[in-house]
Amino acid sequence: MKKRKSIHYIVIVIYTAVFTMLFVTKNYAGNKWPHHEKMAISLTFDDADETQLDIAVPILKKYNLKATFYVLPKTIMSRIAEWKKVIDEGHEIGNHSMRHPCSLNFTFVGDTENALENYTIKKMSDELVVSNISINNLLGINPLSFAYPCGQNFIGRGKSVKSYVPLVAKYFLSGRNYHDESDNDPNFCDFAQLNGRQIEDDFLEDKCLIDNCLKTGFYMVLVGHKLYNSSSELKNKSNIEELSISAETFDKLCQYLDEHKKDIWTSTVTNVVTYMNLQKGECSKEHLIQIKSKHLEVMLSCILAGILFNTFLLRIISFRNIMLIHILCFIVLNLFLIWISRFGYIEFFDVYLLLMMVAYSTGALIVIYWMQNNHKMCIHPDNIND
Fold first, then answer.
1. CB 154 within 8 A of CB 105
2. How many angstroms separate the CA atoms of 270 and 253, rounded?
């Protein structure tokens, strides 16, 4: 009966649409890192020291790694052209304040006006805004990430102490702390207070920290300052500052990250935070629209291809057999791709869509070829008769 045939067509269309949407949306469920790596890491540097341009940037380029450099406007003025080149090479420039305010307990602070104990929320807010404007005027970019000077995020003293974390959350996508002892849980961490660890001038210590993070699957942020590489500096360690890193150590660290890129995703702070935002559904409206539009196109293409294939299939075999074939293919394809993706050989989501579309297209071509050879449109009896 025509009524039964129409119902079958409607069910096939609905089933194909749901079936396809499940595949497309599967990419957003349970994938902690974009290519199934075991952890993420960002290499960051503070203060825009000249050794970062002379030593760190060439090593990063050698291994095709991208880092985040937190700068103060006054520290980049002497080599602006080179910092612009750093941006062109894909590195990120973050904000590290205008005056580098820290607690007066640090002897290098010196000026009481630059002590966090004497700051107010308004003064800090003004400084963050001015430093962002200054960096934009000098380098032509708007910083999306901030690093707390000295890793301290308070102003005032005693009962009047306040946190300026809310200001950082207001003006930036992320804020990075310093001298922390743990990494960042991607499902729980506060992006305005990301934990940051010091890069040790001992590759084995750095490797140990990374290997421990691999077990947890967390997000690690490493922090560096000055670097050194000359033999004279190595001989006279009294000239080497406490937070300095040797070129040899940093090279070994970058080499290790490059050799283990299948398991370790190395990217800038903003790239990683943006990805975690998307996974948690907290990205900006504009970014969401862009992502949804892209996958909507893929989804609609799959749905149309599937409807075409199933419409032709409905003419040669019974409705019940069509459903059984789909269910069987769904189970087999799921088990196969889940198994093989665990070894890191393929990108699970992309291959899933590819195989699905190839299956639909191939099926449609086979049916069309069969019909052409039979010179007529055949409708299976089970789909038109009661």
1. no
2. 21
Q: Under a CB-based contact definition with an 8 Å cutoff, are residues 253 and 77 in contact?
A: no
- Spatial CA neighbour of 342 closest among 30, 25, 16: 30
Flag the least confident range among 35-44, 215-224, 314-323.
314-323
Averaged confidence pLDDT in the chain: 79
Q: What does each C-alpha distance from 331 to 17, 27, 267, 336 come to in angstroms? A: 18, 17, 35, 9
Mapped onto helix, strand or coil, the DSSP state of residue 42 is strand
**pLDDT, tens digit (0-9, with 9 covering 90-100), for 205-248:** 999 999 999 999 999 999 999 999 864 455 455 445 566 899 99
Residue whose pair of structure tokens reads 């010179």 in the numeric block: 375
User: What digits encode the pLDDT tens for the residues 336-364?
Assistant: 655 555 544 444 444 555 555 555 555 54
Q: Which two tokens stand for residue 83?
A: 């910092």
* CA distance linking residue 352 with residue 329, whole number of Å: 12
Dihedrals φ, ψ of 95, to 5°?
-95, 135
Count other C-beta atoms under 10 Å from residue 69's C-beta.
27
| Cα four-point dihedral sign 331, 336, 339, 342 | negative
* Domains of the chain, residue spans: 2-30+285-383, 39-261
Place of tokens 């960096």: 135
Decide which of 108 and 128 is more confident: 128
Q: What is the pLDDT of residue 52?
A: 97
Please report, for residues 321, 322, 337, 359, 367, the alpha-carbon distance to residue 328 in angstroms, rounded to integers and kept in the order given: 10, 10, 14, 13, 20
How deeply is 81 buried, as exposed, middle or buried, from its count of CB atoms within 10 A (0-12, 13-18, 19+)?
exposed
The torsion region of residue 39 among left (phi > 0), alpha (psi -120 to 50) and beta comes to: beta
Dihedral over alpha carbons 77, 82, 87, 88 (to 10 degrees)? 140
The confidence score (pLDDT) of residue 232 equals 47
3-state helix, strand, coil in the chain (%, to 5): 60, 10, 30
CA distance 97 to 132: 8
Assign domain 39-261 to its CATH superfamily: Glycoside hydrolase/deacetylase (3.20.20.370)
Which stretches within 26-174 are classed as H helix?
50-51, 57-62, 73-76, 80-88, 121-139, 165-171
